Amino acid sequence: MKRFFNWFGQHPLRPAFACIALIFALGAAGCITGPPRQDRDWYPYLARAPEVTVTEERFDVAPVSDWSYTSEGPTSETYITAGYPIEELRNVWFMLEPQPGSQLAAHTLLLFEFEGDRMLGLTIEARREQGEEYSAFLGIFNKFELAYIWASARDLLTRRAVMLDHEVFVYPVAINDEQKRMLLRRLLDRTEALETRPRYYNTITSNCTNELAKAAGFHWAPAYILTGRSDEYLFRRGIIPGDSFAQAHARSDMTEFIQALNQAPPEVFDRELLVELRRRNAI
To answer: What is the pLDDT of residues 116-140, one digit of tens each?
Structure first.
């Protein structure tokens, strides 16, 4: 036993690897605590699970969150129905919201741009209960169910930039039209599957970023756990375009623009947002 502890202490990374292994083991043990459920007293924003209908030509989603916010909190809790012909999908935008106090943690989501300057977004989150706080650590142990929330771009961006006063970065996604449609279809299919087969959120294996990566068909990468680096990783892969990551990162900072745009009528939000994104990215 003494020889084992001597070996264990000879390399500084061995205790770290042991801790990681222990976390995985405990997380695996958590999987047997019971099946995920849909009938909890959910936090209001996560309470209404969307229903999806997909055909060869189009899709429909309801309810779609279209809440309004000030710095004090929600001012309206509106829901709408959204539906588009899939052929009208024009572009995909990647949003990163760094978490205060950490350069390695961020929330990520996608915005889908359709013909006519219309947008629809998807955020994948830990489905918290009423009064429950998010914990990345507890998220390893099946503490939360998984939620796919479809929402307007205005809801998703102003919730973060205005209500939470967080930074918001929006990047263009450089993939071809077939890849865009495939990504959209896969995420719709995953949303539809959650209607009848709820799943657990997991900080390591099923978080906001690696759920998107799975739908895109990407292989695993550290950036899917260290999500604050996911934009830099996508840049290195050529999925976020630009001459340098520093330039791409700087022009993607939409925080102040979104805060100002929150004062505009809701019906012009998508159009004005896209005008600015196209100007910054020369699209």
So the answer is: 999 999 999 999 999 999 999 999 9
Beta strands in 166-271 (DSSP E): 169-172
CA angle in degrees (0–180, nearest 5) for 276-254-123: 105
Domain boundaries defined on the chain = 31-281
Angstrom CA distances, 156 to 25, 30, 45, 153, 236, stand at 35, 31, 11, 5, 26
Contact of 172 with 93, CB cutoff 8 Å: yes
Output the pTM of the full model.
0.88
Judge contact between 132 and 126, C-beta under 8 A. Answer: no
> What single DSSP character describes residue 115?
T
Three-state DSSP at 52 gives: strand
In the chain, the N- to C-terminal Cα span, in Å, equals 64
Kindly list the distances between the CA atom of residue 132 and the CA atoms of 43, 198, 219, 230, 281, in Å, as whole numbers in the listed order: 8, 19, 32, 27, 39
Give the containing element (helix H, strand E) for 145: strand 145-151
208-209-213-219 Cα dihedral, nearest 10 degrees: -130
Q: What is the pLDDT of residues 263-280, one digit of tens each?
A: 999 999 999 999 999 999
Instruction: Determine the residue type at 264.
Output: A
- Number of Cβ within 10 Å of residue 203's Cβ equals 24
Contact between 279 and 179 (Cβ < 8 Å): no
Residue in the structure block whose two tokens are 């001459």: 243
The predicted-structure confidence for 146-162, as pLDDT tens digits, reads as follows 999 999 999 999 999 99
| Cβ atoms 195, 52 nearer than 8 A | yes
**Token pair of 188 as six digits:** 């719709």
